[in-house]
Amino acid sequence: MADVAVRGNLGGRSLFGDLLGFDPFRSVQTASGYGFEISRAENGYRIELPVPGFRPEQIDVTIEDRVLTIVGKSERRNFTRTVVIPEEIDAENIGANVEYGLLTLDLHVHPKAQPRKISVTGSATHENSVN
After folding, report:
1. CA trace torsion 65, 104, 113, 121 (10° rounding)
2. What is the CA radius of gyration of the chain?
3. Which of 32, 71, 76, 127 has the maximum number of C-beta atoms within 10 A of its C-beta?
């Protein structure tokens, strides 16, 4: 399964990277370092992003070329988060819900990418002829 790449407001850059030419903390930076959590769910991924004070109509979630962009705009503040999603995610089947100041995004794996059980049957005539 492919990993989910995360970009914050710096577009993937960091202060250390800009000053030193490399970022010594890059390897320890996780999705939670950007203010949200990404976890594996039964049928894909779940992203939880705190959005206290934002109403659903103040949050835009868009996807283009595997880049999921979350933008929140209110009268006092705004934010932008971007996530590059794996190819196996069904872009047509992403759910978004805001409840109690938490935006939850459910990213479902494309149905053709999910494993499925194939039933094995036998025919009565074939079973009798194999003695």
Report:
1. -160
2. 21
3. 71
The structure's pTM equals: 0.62
> For residues 9 and 62, what is the distance between their CA atoms, to the nearest angstrom?
16
Rounded to 5°, angle at Cα 126 from 120 and 130: 110
Tell which residue, 87, 51, 50, has the closest CA to residue 67: 87
Kind plus residue range of the DSSP H or E element containing 107: strand 102-109
CATH 3.40.50.2020 assigned to domain 5-129? The reply is no
Per-residue pLDDT of the chain (131 residues; tens, 9 = 90+): 445 554 444 444 444 444 555 444 443 334 444 578 888 888 889 999 999 999 999 999 999 999 999 999 999 999 999 989 888 899 999 999 999 999 999 999 887 766 778 889 888 655 555 55
Q: So where are the chain's domains?
A: 5-129
Alpha helices in 41-84 (DSSP H): none
Instruction: Give the residue carrying structure tokens 């492919």.
Output: 2
Cα–Cα distance measured from residue 115 to residue 118, given in angstroms and rounded to the nearest whole number: 10
